[in-house]
Design a protein that fits this description.
345 residues; 2 domains; alpha/beta; Rossmann fold; binds NADP nicotinamide-adenine-dinucleotide phosphate; 11 helices; four-stranded mixed β-sheet; binds ligand F7E; 15 strands; UDP-galactose 4-epimerase, domain 1; globular; seven-stranded parallel β-sheet
């Protein structure tokens, strides 16, 4: 019997990973946070009867240890137990507003999980495999392009600093205690399940709203964004959760970059998204006064607001996933155009 425990199961990646593991015959467990409304289950509605959920929180080490222990005790003779640590305060800009909380969940939370695993006897520990959701944000103000596993980190936000801490903990527990722990270093990945306040989903939703408004002859909505000149290497979450799973199927634990090897600016993402719905964007003005105009009607569709600028920006991310492609046989099904089409559909 194969067991999997996903922290962050209610999130974008957690929900796709749960689907994949169910398909592969795993018994899938996850924790959910207590909230006053049950909104956080919405990405799991279609598989709710196939997964086991308990209340838990990355700030509460005893809930994590108790849950992991109960999973092990309730499944005699399990073959392998894969733990995917996907839970995080994952919004970079918000991490500047709640840095302590972000560090507690994205940094110390990882330590709590690793220490939980370490409490088990060696024969049990040897059947546990651990995946850490690391990020290209750790490269920050990049010291090399493209970025690969050996590129030094230079984090530019509390979020990225907490993830760097987790990255080295995972390496430390692997080297110090011989635990099967892997770091994924994943570049941006999106999907129809992406949170609404990440730039890709914000753009797709903005374009949809403008299209809907045009049908009703209304034209008061303007898509308002921050820095549109940063560049990102955007892939699809479905491809990336498959890569996470592959990392835990290897004979030896290691760290891997997952990326597409192509980078686009936010500006290009805006142009592509509008053009898929028949709009051609012209840019006028500079800096915070720049606007994106519909070439046909001269209506302003995009504007800039300083409130979306970050204290430190990550200007360029471009990943080199050669190691994952070669060693894991990892392949992607989506390019940027296919991703945007999927997000619209
Ligand atoms: P996401 O949609 O924001 O999901 C985050 C998950 O973490 C949600 O299930 C959330 O629960 C949970 N969570 C947050 N705080 C928690 C806490 N205190 N205790 C327990 N659970 C908590 O993020 P994602 O895009 O799926 O990303 C998954 C992981 O990969 C994250 O660790 C992220 O930092 C990392 N990552 C993402 C990307 C990317 O481009 N998507 C790239 C590299 C790395 P609620 O539903 O209750 O909020
Ligand atoms: O920003 C710019 C913003 O918030 C992308 C997370 O999943 O990927 C994600 O982090 C770019 C940045 O993603 C707006 O300044 C402009 O340059 O969509 P984002 P992110 O910061 O790259 C990494 C790999 C993770 O690990 C994270 O968890 O877009 N931008 N205008 C904007 N960004 C947002 N959110 N909103 C805007 O209005």
């Amino acid at each position: 019997m194969k067991l999997a425990f996903i922290t962050g199961i209610t999130g974008q990646d957690g929900s796709y990973l749960a689907e994949l593991l169910i398909e592969k015959g795993y018994k899938v467990y996850g924790i959910v946070r207590r909230t006053s409304l049950l909104y956080s289950y919405s990405r799991l509605d279609h598989i709710r009867d196939k997964i086991h959920l308990e209340y838990g929180d990355m700030s509460d080490g005893s809930s994590l240890t108790n849950y992991i222990t109960s999973i092990i005790n309730n499944n005699d003779n399990f073959e392998v137990f894969e733990i995917y640590n996907l839970a995080a305060q994952s919004h970079v800009q918000i991490s500047f507003e709640i840095p302590e909380y972000t560090s507690l969940i994205d940094g110390i939370g990882t330590l709590k999980l690793l220490e939980s695993i370490r409490t088990f006897k060696k024969d049990i520990q040897d059947k546990i495999r651990f995946y850490q959701a690391g990020t290209s944000e750790m490269y920050g103000a990049v010291l090399e392009t493209p970025q690969k596993e050996t590129t030094p980190f230079n984090p530019q936000s509390p979020y990225a600093c907490a993830k760097v801490y987790s990255h080295f903990l995972v390496k430390n527990y692997r080297e110090g205690y011989g635990m099967f722990t892997c770091n994924g270093i994943l570049f941006n990945h999106e999907s129809p399940r992406r949170g609404a306040n990440f730039v890709t989903m914000k753009i797709v939703n903005g374009v949809k709203k403008i299209v809907e408004q045009e049908k009703e002859n209304i034209n008061d909505y303007i898509l308002t964004l921050g820095n549109i000149d940063s560049k990102r290497d955007w892939g699809h979450s479905k491809d990336y959760v498959y890569g996470m799973w592959l990392m835990l199927q290897q004979d030896k634990p290691d760290d891997y970059v997952l990326a597409t090897g192509h980078t686009y600016s936010v500006r290009e993402f805006i142009e592509k998204s509008f053009s898929m719905k028949g709009f051609e964007i012209e840019w006028n003005g500079e800096g915070i006064n720049e606007v994106g105009i519909d070439k046909r009607t001269q209506r302003i569709l995009v504007k800039i607001d300083e409130k979306y600028f970050r204290p430190c920006e990550v200007d360029l991310l471009l990943g080199d996933a050669t190691k994952a492609e070669t060693d894991l046989g990892w392949e992607r099904k989506y390019d940027l155009d296919k991703l945007i089409v999927d997000m619209f559909d």
